Amino acid sequence: MRIGERIGTNLFASAAAAVFGLVGHGVFAQTTGAYAAGVADAKPGDVRVIATAAIREPLNAVLRQAEAAIGKSIVVEYGSARGNLKDEILKGQDFEVAMLLPDVNDELIAADKIAPQRFEIARAPVAFGLRGEAPGIDVTSPAAVKATLLRAKSVKYAPTGAALMTVKKIMSTLQIANAIRDSSKVAVDVQLAPGEYEINIYPLSEIIPNRRLKNLGAVIPELQVPVIIEAAVGKNAADQKTAHALIKFLEGPAIEQALKDDGMEKGGK
User: Fold this and answer.
1) Among residues 101, 128, 132, which one has the least CA distance to residue 114?
2) pLDDT digits (tens, 9 = 90+) for 117-153
């Protein structure tokens, strides 16, 4: 599948994910069969990229430019960095570039699956997204966040997602892990009655494109652990030279506006 076809599938999958409330989970295999095999579908010579869903929108925006820069077709598989993507790599899936999280890359280096050198591509704050009609929601202080989460009919996050460190910090700092109505493992929408609401905790880059959610803004600094997205070259990459060329492109200015549009910033800042 060439990149033009792959981008079309990406857009379809993104829309489907938004409809079914799965954008935050970011695992395309859950929403369309086209992504069931992911980079395993790549043709010889394609540059295979495995990437956290947190960077999906900015990366999609510059894929054609990236192809022109490196002179090869790119196939991207998006998913959960700490979930299906890490599992695939540990089971032996080869690739040219992985765009994952620091703790995941630590594990992959220890397993000899990626080269030691890592490149920070982007940072994203974790944010709150509101589903439901509920006026006066306040997330501007630790006490307000605690009250808002305790009153929520549902608190949704991806249990292996990029925002997990922030979720853990919120729960431990506010001491509410056992008191909230945790819907992180509920696959379907929690039904909301009038006046009830659900709080979603995901990278801002996943909340912005989800039209079902109202963006309440970034989690306050006291509870925030920004998502850092690092690129690394696969230890068994078929074309390491091109893999490094792609990373160099992503470190350059071409992706900066797309990152800003999605609530992110360039890495290394």
Assistant:
1) 101
2) 999 999 999 999 999 988 889 999 999 999 999 999 9
Determine the Cα–Cα distance for residues 219 and 125; give it in Å rounded to an integer. 7
Q: Which among 28, 177, 199 is positioned nearest to 126, based on CA atoms? A: 199
The model's pTM is: 0.80
Measured CA to CA, the distance from residue 220 to residue 215 in angstroms comes to: 14
The 10s digit of each residue's pLDDT in 80-104 is: 999 999 999 999 999 999 999 999 9
Residue with tokens 């390491």: 240
Pairing of strands 227-233, 97-100: antiparallel
What span, in angstroms and rounded, lies between the C-alpha atoms of 142 and 170? 9
Which structural domains are found in the chain, ordered by start?
Answer: 3-123+227-266 (3.40.190.10), 126-223 (3.40.190)
Q: Which residue carries 């430019």 as its tokens?
A: 65
